[in-house]
Design brief:
- The complex is a heterotrimer.
- Chain A is built from 13 helices and no strands.
- Chain A is mainly α.
- By secondary structure, chain B is mainly alpha-helical.
- Chain B folds into 2 domains: 49 residues, no CATH class; 207 residues, MetI-like (MetI-like fold, Orthogonal Bundle), CATH 1.10.3720.
- Chain B is built from 14 helices and no strands.
- The two termini of chain B are 40 Å apart.
- Chain C is elongated.
- In chain C, β1 and β2 form a beta hairpin.
- The model of chain C has no long low-confidence stretch (mean pLDDT 92).
- Classes of the chains: A mainly alpha, B mainly alpha, C alpha+beta.
- At the A-B interface, α1, α3, α4, α5 and α6 of A face α1, α4, α5, α6 and α7 of B.
- The structure holds adenosine-5'-diphosphate and magnesium ion.
- Magnesium ion binds next to α1 of chain C.
Chain lengths: 316, 284, 359
């Protein structure tokens, strides 16, 4: 410390910083409360309030406009008697299984391939994730064209010499639902890859050293050691993809329009269709509520773990 | 070992080709003439690349107007821009302030509120669609750009709040204490300390919100009406319209035009997008 | 009064009491060190003085003003943190001036003060750098600068030196002491390092599990620990403890462990009344004196530290550490005679651990 420095703290009183004071001063905590009002209003009114509202509508006879004549669970009875609804639910199961399964399997494989230490890793990652930046509508339109039975892939392969090649699923009622999974996986596999890759990069490198020392083949390490360690990542991917599946609306609209007929319809589209186009508000609301219950059933373990993690991770 | 490396690169290239093929087909189709499309294969490169289809997709075909407009995407592009920019700024701004408030100012119930918000991210929009329509209609902004902006803010705030809240939770407690001792109140702490710290997250949130809002279809379809049709809705109408002969080259050019803004943001932002997408993934 | 006064301060988190009935008087100009093991509540106490944590009960005065309900910036205090807590996005200049800016001081005045403080701490050349471009020691100086510039009535330090390496820590210790002597301001300083407490403090407050164990000058805390906890926490190597009774044989006092009798010399008169009562003897290593007339102890191990060596001894059924100069050689297994300095030893109640000897 410099010896002959100015005597900083020796000042006359009028030179001191004014100390703010007073009991009536505005407290920052109050500002924090005020700042929460918009988001809190949105949460309470537009999320939870509107859910309740939809539920209430689902208990009425509302068709074009909401009428508050309650009919109990009639709309649910109608819904479960509705063939189109059952097709949509069945499709949700098929699409969910194929889409989530495909995303998990291909995403994990791609992540492993990249994790093997390749050159141009950045380029591969960029390419794999590129479809993610496009909308479901764009994805649907592209794939509708690619799968066009007259001019698309089928014709192109036949032109190459394989005359009996058939790929006309998009116009076949018994196959159209599978096209949804193809386009969906194409779009989302990059996200799964990124999540899995982040998980793989988190794994203690000593595990690899140890297994090298023990002479365990690489594929065995992945299968028996790494994969079990990645279970939380698998869980997260599963949840995220489930959320996408259950909201799936745009993709069906753009790819198949739910057709041919209603053969590739999904619940989310059923609901929008009944609310916006078919003047079956009550039935649509009932469908929406059933959809919400399905989402909750799948998501709640995730939310539970998120919050538990939060609590466990809190230090001081 | 050598062998394995070749197999590795082989598989990766195969995957890359499969993922890029549809994009390639889209671009190449958009550059072809309808004759070439009818007589050729989707795999072949355009013999005589032309931007005619692009210009038709953008400006529309004014010789066979179905209504007042020529039907091009240019007007809905402008609509999308007018929706995205304010909605982006408002939703990110509100998320930043809310996330900050929840993370830093330990209030009673902050965690409950955050949990409620987190759950909100998973609610399918269909579930609250009708009440939201009524609300927007009552506010007198149904079928207009302000209506769509508001709807996007409502649907975006849970996600942006989560991003900022989780980031601000990682700011060391001592820093917050130091700022309080220095006399920084709620807004001073936000502007001078927290917001400058959160610039990377701000970037991520901006990029992702841009992508989500631009790519939205359901809300645009429901709340846009005639005057507020964003590009995705216009594209779907264009492709789905049953009038006249289908022009696949125009369809693909229109698709490309719709995808370009987010594609450009993705390619330019690179790492930020990758970083954010994991956090934002919950919002399919 | 000037300084800081805590009256019956209590703190509970979610119903669990972590600080109980703290009463402290910190006189103007004191360098008060809060010493205690990790988790004993030092930071909590400091945060309550700063206004960063509300008190659950009791009140706090600073310079005669009740500040219990005031915000931190209204309390006329400044604080330095273990992690330095510099604002990462601001330059050093802005970091130091931020508090003044928030107080609404005009820009030229802020400039002036920042300059003075920077000169005092010799960080003028660093003023335009970002904290990430500074070494730990430099960051520490900036953090101190940020506190100095506020010119508060009380400085609060929360383990400010713990993140520095040993050499720098010793240097900064000296600088802090000089700074205190120059400024003469009240300092409340938290540490778990007893060396810092001993060297810096004009008054030490030893805390354990949320309550004050002893508040006294550093010399007294070392010389006359109020209880077993203070005795064992202060001093390195730690004090030797053995249980037993005081016995008198003629003129000579012994401490009988049941397995041997430790001879005591220069025992104060007040110990006479305690003969026969079971208690704990506490003797620091330097209180064990080598004397051939004493009880025979077996050398277990000798640990040279440079200036001293510490000798582990098996004696009277216990193990004790003695201090010796570096010259003498101790062979493990060898026998040696020791006596205990009765004038400086401590005696503790077997039940509650309170010190029995006074003065
Ligand atoms: N925010 C908090 N919530 C609950 N308990 C806390 C909190 N902060 C501190 N504690 C508890 O208070 C006690 C004292 O903590 P602290 O003052 O940080 O100790 P020190 O600084 O002496 O290491 C610890 O037992 C700690 O667990
Ligand atoms: Mg502490």
């Amino acid at each position: 410390m410099a010896e002959p420095a100015p005597d900083v703290l020796q000042r006359s009183d009028d030179q001191k910083i004014p100390i703010k004071s007073g009991k009536k001063r505005w407290r920052p905590q109050w500002s924090a409360g005020v700042a929460l009002i918009p988001a809190m209003t949105i949460t309470i009114v537009c999320f939870y309030g509107f859910i309740i509202w939809t539920f209430i509508i689902s208990l009425t006879r509302s068709r074009l406009l909401p009428v508050y004549k309650f009919t109990g669970f009639d709309q649910y009875v109608r819904l479960f008697a509705n063939e189109r609804w059952w097709t949509a639910m069945q499709n949700l199961a098929i699409h969910g299984f194929l889409f989530i399964g495909g995303c998990v399997v291909f995403g994990y494989l791609l992540a492993i391939l990249i994790d093997r230490g390749v050159k141009a890793e950045g380029m591969f990652r960029t390419l794999f994730m590129l479809p993610l930046s496009m909308s479901f509508i764009v994805t649907g339109v592209i794939w509708q064209w690619v799968m066009n039975p007259g001019l698309g892939l089928q014709e192109a392969v036949r032109a190459l010499g394989w005359a009996s090649f058939e790929f006309n699923w998009i116009v076949r009622p018994d196959r159209s639902i599978y096209t949804l999974a193809i386009a969906g996986i194409w779009q989302q596999v990059g996200l799964c890859m990124a999540l899995f890759l982040a998980g793989l990069r988190n794994i203690d490198p000593n595990i690899w050293k140890a297994s090298r020392v023990d002479g365990i083949p690489v594929w065995r390490v992945y299968l028996h050691i790494i994969t079990p360690m990645m279970r939380t990542v698998f869980f997260t991917v599963f949840i995220l993809m489930s959320a996408i599946v259950m909201k799936a609306f745009d993709l069906v609209v753009a790819l198949t329009g739910g057709g041919p007929g209603f053969s590739s319809d999904l619940p989310a589209r059923f609901v929008v269709d009944h609310i916006l186009n078919r003047q079956e508000l009550g039935l649509g609301a009932a469908g929406a509520f059933v959809l919400l219950c399905t989402v909750i059933a799948v998501i709640s373990p995730y939310i539970y773990f998120e919050l538990k993690k939060e609590r466990g991770g809190r230090g001081h | 070992m050598r062998y394995n490396r070749w197999a590795l690169y082989g598989l990766l290239c195969l995957a890359a080709i499969m993922i890029m093929a549809p994009v390639f087909i889209m671009i190449s189709t958009s550059l072809k003439s309808m004759d070439e499309i009818r007589n050729g294969s989707i795999f072949t490169l355009p013999a005589d690349p032309s931007f005619a289809a692009w210009s038709k997709a953008w400006l529309g075909d004014c010789t066979q107007t179905l209504g007042k407009k020529c039907g091009g995407l240019s007007s809905s592009f402008m609509t999308s821009v007018q929706i995205v920019i304010p909605a982006l700024i408002l939703s990110v701004g509100l998320g930043a302030v809310t996330g900050y408030s929840l993370a830093v100012w330990k209030m009673k119930g902050a965690n409950v509120m955050f949990a409620a918000l987190l759950v909100g991210m998973f609610i399918p929009p269909q579930v609250t669609l009708y009440p939201l329509i009524i609300m927007i209609r009552e506010l007198g902004i149904f079928g207009s750009i302000p209506g769509l902006i508001l709807v996007h803010v409502i649907w975006g705030v849970a996600f942006t709040t989560m991003m900022f809240r989780n980031f601000f939770k990682t700011v060391p407690q001592d820093l917050l204490k130091a700022a309080r001792i220095d006399g920084a109140g709620f807004w001073a702490l936000f502007w001078h300390v927290m917001l400058p710290l959160s610039l990377p997250i701000l970037g991520v949130a901006m990029i992702l919100q841009f992508t989500y809002i631009w790519n939205d279809f359901l809300l645009g379809l429901t709340f846009g009406g005639r005057s507020g049709q964003p590009m995705t809705v216009a594209l779907n109408n264009l492709v789905g319209s049953q009038f006249g002969e289908k022009e696949y080259n125009v369809d693909m050019a229109a698709t490309m035009l719709t995808a370009l803004p987010t594609l450009a943001v993705y390619l330019l932002s690179g790492r930020l997008f990758v970083r954010g997408i994991a956090a934002g993934a919950v919002k399919g | 009064m000037n300084g800081v006064e805590l009256r019956d301060v209590t703190k509970a988190y979610a119903g669990i009491t972590v600080m109980e009935n703290i009463n402290l008087e910190i006189s103007d100009g004191d360098f008060l060190v809060l010493l205690g093991p990790s988790g004993c509540g030092k930071s909590t106490l400091l945060n309550m003085i700063a206004g960063l944590e509300p008190v659950t009960g009791g009140s706090i005065d600073i310079n005669g003003r009740d500040v219990t309900a005031l915000e931190p910036d209204e309390r006329d205090i400044a604080m330095v943190f273990q992690s330095y807590a510099l604002y990462p996005t601001m330059s050093v200049r802005k970091n130091i001036g931020f508090g003044l800016k928030m107080a609404g001081m005009p820009k030229p005045d802020i400039e002036e003060r920042v300059k003075e403080v920077a000169e005092l701490l010799q960080i003028t050349p660093l003023l335009d750098r970002k904290p990430s471009q500074l070494s730990g020691g430099q960051q520490q100086r900036v953090a101190i600068g940020r506190a100095l510039v506020r010119e508060p009535a009380v400085f609060l330090f929360d383990e400010p030196l713990s993140n520095l390496d040993a050499k720098l820590r010793a240097d900064m210790r000296i600088e802090l002491k000089r700074l205190h002597e120059r400024l003469g301001r009240t300092i409340v300083y938290v540490t778990h390092d007893q060396i810092e407490a001993m060297t810096l403090a004009t008054k030490v407050v030893v805390l354990d599990r949320g309550s004050v164990q002893q508040a006294d000058t550093p010399e007294n805390v070392y010389r006359r620990p109020a209880n077993r906890f203070v005795a064992s926490f202060v001093g390195a190597p730690t004090m030797n403890f053995v249980d037993g009774t005081l016995v008198r044989e003629g003129d000579q006092m012994f401490f009988d462990t049941g397995k041997g009798k430790l001879p005591l010399v220069d025992v104060p008169a007040q110990a006479n009344e305690m003969v026969g009562r079971p208690m704990t003897l506490g003797a620091r290593p330097e209180h064990l004196m080598f004397d051939d007339a004493g009880i025979s102890a077996r050398v277990v191990l000798a640990e040279p530290t440079g200036p001293d060596q510490y000798v582990r001894l098996a004696v009277a059924g216990a193990e004790m550490t003695a201090r010796s100069g570096p010259e003498q050689a101790f062979k493990p297994g060898a026998d040696i005679g020791i006596v205990i300095d009765g004038a400086r030893m401590s005696l503790f109640d077997l039940e509650n651990g309170q010190a029995l000897l006074e003065g």
